[in-house]
Design brief:
Number of domains of chain B: 1
Helix content of chain B: 40-55%
Strand content of chain A: under 5%
Number of helices of chain A: 6
Shape of chain A: globular
Largest sheet of chain B: 3 strands, mixed
Number of helices of chain B: 11
CATH topology of chain A: Cytochrome Bc1 Complex, Chain D, domain 2
CATH superfamily of chain B: Cytochrome c-like domain
Number of strands of chain B: 7
Strand content of chain B: 5-15%
Radius of gyration of chain B: 18 Å
Oligomer: heterodimer
CATH architecture of chain B: Orthogonal Bundle
Largest sheet of chain A: none
Strand order of the largest sheet of chain B: 6-5-7
Order of helices and strands of chain A: HHHHHH
Distance between the termini of chain A: 25 Å
Distance between the termini of chain B: 38 Å
Helix content of chain A: 40-55%
Radius of gyration of chain A: 14 Å
Number of strands of chain A: 0
Number of domains of chain A: 1
CATH topology of chain B: Cytochrome Bc1 Complex, Chain D, domain 2
Structural class of chain B: mainly alpha
Chain lengths: 120, 278
């Protein structure tokens, strides 16, 4: 159920891949990352820090791998989106909650979290 | 001891797949071997201490808690309640005549006549009802205190749950509890085993996940965060809610069967309840 890239996503992609390291992403992409960050840290939403160590998190969990070097781990952002949407599809034994399949997050929220996580 | 099929059985345990049904003794061996390999520095008996058997820094703090344990008051209150006469002049002591030498280690057990798994807390309320008294609430309060008193009298007794082979319903109850333990549930899609077999010793936020081996030995527990003595089935329900799953009722058949499997898997570990926990 992969979504077609929205104009916002396209802008974010352009900012991420077009700018190179150190480039300032455009305002839309930056705000999408920021919204994604909020969802990721929200206990009732992503609550990523329950299991993952990530920048800016205190008392983060260790059940999952630390979220660092995400661009190296997921050169293709779509793969990251699949992982967040339903990790059990990739590895049936994965403990990661299926955020999309179980509607823990909306598809729109997943897009934002993907932007944020991919920026780590 | 049959060692050859263990790796295979272990895999089927962890995966929770159906197909070939492992005998309970084989499940038990696989379970013990798994924790022995996962925590080679923890002596078998020490798993009775839950997360403190695998975490040194928390253990120190816990040992201090255990010097003046909050549950002492509950043991005393439980003793009084246990001997408090019912309206008919009898008391719980009449239902548990051997209480002084310890009865905790007799639960949970398969009751052939009832065709049910009988847990100690359920037996306490069944006794009350037989004597025309109202059942007590199962999560906390007087029933948890009585449970603490009886657990205390059985400290050091070895967990030895038996699954009678001549009654297929007993094995079915065990299998039911096992299926429960390995089934994913709730919006967050975790099974009991996801955390307590798959990730013991890891942190879920600031919460250290405890090993399933020995997990039942120390109940009821005085939980600092809850500020009171609480029963095993309350912990089952609390875990369910954390997974965003609807909890079953305390002492429902589902939870009694779960306790049957869960306790059987700790056979050989000493009972050491009540316990102090965060």
């Amino acid at each position: 159920m992969a979504r077609v890239a929205t104009p916002v996503l396209a802008a974010a992609l352009a900012a991420t891949f077009g700018g190179g390291p150190g480039a300032v992403p455009d305002a839309t992409a930056a705000s999408m990352i920021e919204e994604g960050r909020k969802i990721a840290f929200d206990r009732r939403k992503g609550n990523c820090i329950a299991c993952h160590i990530m920048a800016g998190a205190t008392l983060a969990g260790t059940v999952g791998p630390p979220l660092v070097g995400m661009k190296a781990r997921f050169p293709d952002k779509i793969e990251l989106r699949l992982q967040i949407r339903d990790a059990t599809k990739i590895n049936p034994q994965s403990l990661m909650p299926p955020f999309g399949r179980h509607e823990i997050l909306t598809e729109d929220e997943i897009d934002k979290v993907v932007e944020y996580v991919h920026s780590l | 001891m049959r060692f050859a099929p263990i790796a295979l059985l272990g895999a089927s345990l962890v995966l929770g797949v159906g197909g070939v049904q492992a005998a309970p003794e084989d499940d038990l061996m696989a379970f013990r071997n798994f924790y022995e390999q996962r925590f080679p520095d923890t002596p078998f008996d020490d798993f009775a201490n839950g997360i403190y058997s695998i975490d040194k820094s928390r253990r120190e703090e816990w040992e201090q808690m255990e010097e003046f344990p909050q549950y002492e008051f509950d043991i005393d209150a439980g003793e009084e309640l246990f001997h408090e006469p019912f309206a008919n002049g009898k008391s719980l002591a009449d239902c548990f005549p051997d209480y002084e030498s310890g009865v905790r280690q007799n639960y949970p057990h398969w009751d052939r006549e009832l065709g049910e798994v009988v847990t100690m807390e359920w037996a306490i309320n069944r006794c009350r009802e037989q004597h025309d008294e109202k059942p007590l609430e199962y999560y906390k309060g007087p029933l948890a205190q009585i449970s603490a008193y009886l657990a205390f009298l059985s400290r050091g007794k070895i967990i030895d749950v038996k699954i009678p082979t001549d009654d297929p319903r007993a094995l079915a109850a065990y299998e039911d509890g096992k299926r429960f333990y390995y089934s994913r549930r709730g919006q967050l899609n975790f099974s009991c085993a996801s955390c307590h077999v798959g990730a013991p010793g890891m942190l879920l936020r600031a919460e250290l996940l405890g090993p399933a081996l020995g997990q039942v030995s120390h109940f009821p527990v005085y939980r600092k965060t809850w500020g009171e003595i609480t029963t095993l089935h309350r912990s089952y329900a609390a875990c369910s809610r954390q997974l965003r799953a609807a909890a079953f009722k305390a002492q429902s058949r589902e939870y009694r069967n779960l306790e049957f499997f869960h306790t059987y898997m700790s056979n050989g570990i000493p009972f050491n309840g009540p316990g102090s926990r965060h």
